[in-house]
Amino acid sequence: ADLQAQIAGLASAATRVLAQNWVAQAYRDAQALPLGAFEAALMGNMRGDPLRLAKAFGCDILTVFRRLAFRKGAVDGLVICDGSGALIMRKSVEGFALPRHGAACPLWPLFSALSQPSRPVSALVEMPGLAPHPFFLRAYCAVSYPQGFSGPEVRDAAMLITAGKPVGGGEVVPVGSSCRICPRADCAARREPSIISETV
What we know:
The chain is of the alpha+beta class and 200 residues long. It contains 6 helices and 6 strands; from the N terminus they run H-H-H-H-H-E-E-H-E-E-E-E. The chain starts with a helix and ends in a 26-residue tail after the last strand.
């Protein structure tokens, strides 16, 4: 009741529809991945691998990504984009800045996954700053055809953001939030000048 009251109090009809859609999606995710069984699987030998979890529960990988990021007590961040690359959902994590408006860093594995549907993409990255910390990013793009063979292909890509290094580590890729506020002067993927001076 409280949640519905909060949704009803949102400023516009479009915002209320989006909120209702996200609530309905969260409910479907919880039905597909019951919290008790899901938490037990996370503690088991699958160790949070989204691909293995999706196979074990018979669901799609983006459902696992959302459940990992939005279950109670979750510390992972998550971003989701549509086929144009526009961010349609953001859940931040401390130390990994997400752009509030405009385009995100093109070096995120989110966009590599978007161009390679059904192929998992991961990277160990570091955000700029005086005390940069590593983040393990896992991304996946799902493709659907809601109007059948004669309809368009629809792509949705998601990227799970986990603080720290995975077991085994690996080469660290320097990334940013978005070009406009990224201080990395020597970035090969820069598309516009930064308003922030170099700090790393």
